Amino acid sequence: MLHRIGPVGDGRRQANTAAVLRAVLDNGPVSRSEVARLTGLSPASVTRQYAELARLGLVRELPPMTSTRVGRPQVPIDVAAAADGDGPVVAGVHLAVPGTRLVLVDLRGRVLAQEVLERERRDPPFVLGQATERLPGFLEEHLGSRRALALGVAVGGWVDPGRGVVVEHVPLGWNGVPVRELLGAAGLPVHVDSHSRALAHAEVLFGDPRARRSLVHLFVGNVVDAALATGGTVHHGPRAGAGDVAHLPLGEASVRCPCGRTGCFQAAVSEAAAANRAADLGIVPAPDFNDLLDAAASGDRRADALLRRRARLTGRAVALLLDVVNPEVLVLTDQSLILSPHYLPEVHEEVRAHSHVCDDPEEVVVPSSFGTDVLGVAAGAVVLADLYQRPLTLLDSPLNPQPSSQPNSQPDSLPAPPPAAPLDPPLDSHLGPPLSSPSQLPQGALP
Ligand SMILES: [Zn+2]
Q: Which InterPro entries did the record assign (predicted)?
């Protein structure tokens, strides 16, 4: 079998297929000849990769474009998205502190349906059991004739996507929770990642074009975490620990953090911290962040001052991240900024005052591209990130997600080495022998 000649050939094939899929995502509807020009692949190779992607249901032909030029009409191609009615979708679960969000997201990262599950308990068996129990009904109600490819799980805190484990989530009180294993009963392959990294992937794929060159994504919610991407690759670091900014000593010295120290960034700016402070000050009757936002919106000056102070502290962290990484764009995802964008200038002012490298914060520091859909997009992007990097690996072994799909010490733009001994060989295997070294893996389109 020619396609099994070895790791270089298979890695190249995977990379070429991914390059065609990305070119179609970015430019579709687009002609095959334009895809060849964009990727540097030969027209014959584009036709081969297109056929492969069409077999997997990821791309489709549109009606021919009318052209005044003589010659064969161009048949545009595009990713099979929700507008098609039957395009494939990904299911998602976003695990936040107050609730769980179930979503359906199309291949362009658009949220098609979502539902929030409220809950009283936060222990893993309850939270994950509740999601597992509700998912089949949710899919039944919203899938229609579409096909769900996989389930993406986005969660804050420290997440190891290679093992599908939440290593540490302080506000939920989770340590070493095997989320992939516990959600496996839903019957879909399960991919798990931190929501900050997932949103970095989402910005790279569907959001601000500058994110492809270099990006810092900062999430400020009940947890506070960051993700870094350069050249379209989101950085994980050993044990996927990159981006832990929760305990940067930027907060008030009087506030104690669950980690035992005082002055931690998360302990000062998390939604829970702000809500507790508002309740202590009598601004809201009970600690509820949405009530605090409502109070500020209805003219409560103390609520407004508290949120401005919080935005200033966030700006301090933003300035620090800008100086360390110097990204082309820093995307700040914060519910209060989505609902009350007039606090963003406070962040910009603080950056102007404290950053040594950024002199145009209004251009560089921007809110998420995904507005109020941001949590749902995060869940979907956990799968979509893998799909656009490794369409063949992801889809040819649908019930066998890669145990090492996000190797802890390797950048994840590289096609992952398949498991050395898969328990269930893919039905229609195109996987060659394990790739032994990242240096064998081409990053871009290879002719
Ligand atoms: Zn701390």
A: ATPase_NBD, ROK, WH-like_DNA-bd_sf, WH_DNA-bd_sf
d(CA 409, CA 238): 5
Domain 210-368, CATH among 2.60.40.10, 3.30.420.40, 3.60.20.10, 3.20.20.70? 3.30.420.40
| Residue 8 pLDDT greater than 70, yes or no | no
Q: How far away, in angstroms, is 66 Cα from ligand 1 center?
A: 61
Decide if 85-207+369-419 and 210-368 have a common fold: yes
Long-range contacts of residues 338-342, Cβ cutoff 8 Å, at least 24 apart: 338/367, 338/368, 338/371, 338/372, 338/374, 339/293, 339/372, 340/293, 340/296, 340/297, 340/307, 341/367
Q: In sequence order, which ranges of 116-238 are alpha helices (DSSP H)?
A: 124-142, 179-183, 195-206
Q: Which residues pair with 30 in a beta bridge?
A: 77
Domain ranges across the chain: 1-65+75-80, 85-207+369-419, 210-368
- Closest CA relative to residue 132, chosen from 168, 106, 95, 85: 95
CB distance 404 to 419 below 8 Å = yes
Determine the distance separating the centroid of ligand 1 and the alpha carbon of 223, expressed in angstroms: 11
| Ligand 1 centre distance from Cα of residue 200 (Å) | 24
> Peptide bond before 29: cis, by omega within 30 degrees of 0?
yes
Q: Mean pLDDT across the stretch 126-134?
A: 96
The single residue listed with the structure tokens 């809500």 is: 275
Amino acid letter, 356:
H
Calpha distance 135→194 (Å, rounded): 20
CA 305 to chain centre: 32
CA distances from 386 to 151, 202, 391 (A): 12, 11, 7
Q: How far is the CA of 246 from the centre of ligand 1 (A)?
A: 7
Q: 166-201 burial, b for 16+ CB within 10 Å, e for fewer?
A: bbbbbbbebeebebbebbbebebbbbbbbbbbbbbb
Cα 399 to middle of ligand 1, angstroms: 39
CA of residue 13 to ligand 1 center, whole Å: 46
pLDDT in tens, 288-338: 999 999 999 999 999 999 999 999 999 999 999 999 999 999 999 998 999
Q: In CATH, what number does 1-65+75-80 get?
A: 1.10.10.10
- Ligand 1 ion local residues (Cβ < 5 A): 247, 257, 259, 264
CATH class entry, domain 85-207+369-419: alpha beta
Kind plus residue range of the DSSP H or E element containing 229:
strand 224-230
Cα of 250 from ligand 1 centre, angstroms: 10
